[in-house]
């Protein structure tokens, strides 16, 4: 199986979530006394991306993928179960190759942050399974092809926004309580 995530590297694109997914699969295979218990078949993970020069976090994510690829690809005990390849400088030509190769493509951006989402349409039109967050074009694709043909997870942007507001309100209430207790000279918060 060829599992692909290819896009501009950014914290909102959640490549780090995909990184930990791959790492978890690797560790499960390693810790299993029978290697096949941690694996569901041989998987080639293809990751491609690039980060703007000034995007320090994005550069660190790319570096982490290179290190993980070296770890996995140099470990003979997982050779029959997984490989990881990072393809640098993601662009249209790279996308053309990956779209036609993918069995599964990952579109797991934070809801409310994906501006257009056209690459997921290309993957699905080429017969790849789409794994996506509940946002934008993923929702449109789900309506068109049916929920049975796409794997969606997580909350939509409205629920995420409501949660963020709830957490923000709790922080504000706590801050006010701390200030008031400080003014009274007690520590009741």
Short description:
The chain has six helices and six strands. By secondary structure, it is of the alpha/beta class. Helix 1 runs parallel beside helix 2.
Describe this structure in words.
- Helix 2 links the parallel strand 2 and strand 3.
- The chain has a 6-stranded parallel beta sheet, sandwiched between helices.
- With 189 residues, it is of the alpha/beta class.
- Helices cover 48% and strands 16% of the residues.
- It starts with a strand and ends in a 5-residue tail after the last helix.
- Helix 1 runs parallel beside helix 2.
- The protein folds into 2 domains: 153 residues, Rossmann fold (3-Layer(aba) Sandwich), CATH 3.40.50; 35 residues.
> Which geometry do the CA atoms define?
globular
Order of helices and strands: EHEHEHEHEHEH
Question: Major sheet: order of its strands?
Answer: 3-2-1-4-5-6
SS elements, strand count: 6
- Can you name the CATH architecture of the largest domain? 3-Layer(aba) Sandwich
Query: Which structural class is indicated by helix and strand composition?
Result: alpha/beta
CATH topology of the largest domain: Rossmann fold
Compute the CA-based radius of gyration.
21 Å
Low-confidence stretches: none
Q: How many distinct domains? A: 2
The residue-averaged pLDDT reads 81
């Amino acid at each position: 199986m060829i599992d692909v995530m290819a896009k501009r590297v950014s914290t909102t694109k959640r490549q780090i979530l995909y990184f930990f997914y791959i790492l978890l699969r690797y560790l499960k295979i390693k810790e299993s006394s029978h290697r096949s218990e941690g694996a569901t078949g041989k998987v080639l993970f293809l990751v491609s991306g690039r980060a703007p020069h000034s995007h320090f976090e994005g550069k660190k994510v790319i570096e982490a993928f290179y290190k993980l690829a070296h770890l996995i690809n140099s470990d003979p005990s997982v050779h029959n179960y997984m490989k990881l390849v990072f393809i640098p400088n993601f662009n249209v030509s790279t996308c053309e190759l990956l779209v036609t190769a993918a069995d599964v493509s990952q579109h797991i951006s934070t809801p409310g942050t994906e501006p257009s989402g056209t690459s997921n349409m290309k993957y699905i039109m080429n017969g790849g399974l789409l794994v996506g967050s509940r946002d934008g074009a993923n929702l449109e694709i789900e309506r068109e092809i049916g929920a049975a043909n796409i794997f969606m997870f997580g909350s939509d942007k409205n629920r995420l926004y409501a949660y963020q507001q709830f957490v923000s309100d709790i922080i504000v209430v706590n801050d006010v309580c701390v200030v008031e207790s400080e003014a009274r000279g007690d520590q009741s918060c």
